[in-house]
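Course assignment 3, question 2. Fill in each field.
Student: A.L.
Task: Predict the tertiary structure for the chain below.
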Amino acid sequence: MASTRGPIERPLSPHLQIYRLTLTMAMSIAHRVSGAALYFGTLLLVWWLVAAATSARQYDVVNAVFSSWIGRIVLFGYTWALMHHMLGGMRHLLWDTGRGFEPAEREFLARATIIGSIALTFAVWLLAYVLKG
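Answer field:
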């Protein structure tokens, strides 16, 4: 006669309350958020390009929106998202080669991504204001 077994007790995966948020985890979330921000920011870029191709009046409207204080904040955020996502992609590219997985290296790369994205964003905006005059 066949014996019946009870339910198999399997180990449970740790719940989110068990994990401690690390910088690498936060950078993963920030990389996804910056990717989503780039999607919506690219729609603004398309709006600007279509307005430029349509008429001078439409182009002036878009420029008025982008040159307002809230428009500049949105464009600044778009610039940061672009720089952050680019540096995060470079970090992932490095990981694809099998390098940078030691805990100290991961922390360094995460901090370099944060500092680098902020520095590059300010550098781009400073250069834009210098060239604009």
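Instructor remarks: The two ends are 91 Å apart (CA to CA). The chain has one domain: 23-132.
Grade: pending
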